[in-house]
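_Full entry_
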Amino acid sequence: MQSFGFLALICAVLSMAKAELSAEFKEKFMAKMESIGEKCAAETGAPQEDIAKIITKEIPTTHEGKCMLFCGHREFHIQKPDGSVDIESAIASLDFIKAEDEDIYNKLVQVYKVCSQIPVISDPCEYAVELSVCGVHEAEKLGIDRRILE
C-alpha cells in the first residue's frame, strides 16, 4: 500500500482512533489509499525505489517520486492541479472522518491549517514534499508519532 505526506498523516490519525472507528471504516479508507497509490504510481512513473521510500514514510529522491506525493495530495484535494493549497476542499474532504470521530477530524484540520501557510514553491511536486514534512512535524506536536503506521 502506498501512503504519502498528508495522506500518511490521515492514516496515522486513523490508526490511533478510538474504538468507535469501525474496522469496516478503516478497511475502506485503506483500500482507497491503495487505489490512489496505484493510480499515482502509474501516472508519475515513479521508480520502485521511491515507492518503497514512500511506503516507509521517507522522502522520495527523484522528481517522479516527489510528484507521487503531489498526485496523492491532488486526489485528496490538499493541493489544486496548479500545486497551490486547497484548504477548504481539503477540510471538506475530511467530513467522512468527522462523522466517525470529531477529535480526529479536529486534529487533522489543525495540521492542515498550519501547513497551508507554507509559501508556495513553483514546482508543485517539491511543494508537496514541503507540505508533507510540515504535516509530519505538526502531527508530532499533537502527539501523533510517525511510527504509528509501522
The radius of gyration is 14 Å. Confidence is low (pLDDT under 50) at residues 146-150. Residues 46 and 65 are 5 Å apart (CA to CA).
